[in-house]
Amino acid sequence: MSPTIYTIILSSLATGTIVTMTSFHWLMAWIGLELNTLAIIPIISTLHHPRSTEAATKYFLTQAAASAMILFSSMINAWNTGTWDITQMSYAPSNILLSLALALKLGLAPAHFWLPEVLQGSTLLTALIITTWQKLAPMSLIYMTMNNLPSTILLMLGLTSSTIGGWSGLNQTQTRKIMAYSSIAHLGWMAMIASIMLNIMIMNLMVYLMMTTALFTSLICSKSKTIQDTATTWTTSPTLAIIMMLLLLSLGGLPPLTGFLPKWLVLEELIMQNLIPMATAMAMSALLSLFFYLRLTYATTLTLPPNTLQMKFKW
User: Which are the contacts of 237, defined by CB distance < 8 A and separation ≥ 6?
Assistant: First the structure.
């Protein structure tokens, strides 16, 4: 793809997100989401490979369905309340429909099936865009409509996402699929806290964006597509291997590192709201994801791949 076209597509991607984040009219928000989807389709399918074409098709179908559901729910709301204002979603059925549509758009379980497949079919850089930038617009809609969204549904979505993200990630050997399940689990934590305390959700999102971006950048630098590839990262750069170890442990949420802070605050807030069974279940699900992060860390920095004495270091 020529640099000019790529620049136009990336700027459309940015514009779509910004339009959604700054709009108060449902129609404008929907236009932003559609612009976002249409801009990323060519980015996913640049590889000209059946897998990437399949990924682009899957992504397009799910996002288009979710956008249509969002438009439908806002239309029902406008029909009943007479306003298209995003902050005035007061009709209950449209709120339920909206929360399900946003779950599909973000890839929250049980509507998560498209995310690992799409990431597996795209390049590491595209996977980075899908797991970070593409989450901003739906998250901003959650932020704006939070006063009216049904909290029970969000709590259940959060719990299932966190559990399924941890459980399914255990079985993976591809780094992109691991990152997809990691993304699902992290979004589960955000959905869990959204109905209770929005500023913790925003902080959780910020920490997630920083760590995911850093880890994807490391994977791109070391060209690691499977767990076996990460084992040879130290031949590229020992420093990079150490940074990857810290990032993986931080994503898992081990105490002295940054990733522990959002989890700690979420659990504390859940206990304050007397949702102790929910907090226990979330802590248990965090152990599942911690296990596969630890396995990846172990493969990356704590083992030596089979090599000969004459093996050349990339550095």
Answer: 221, 222, 314, 315
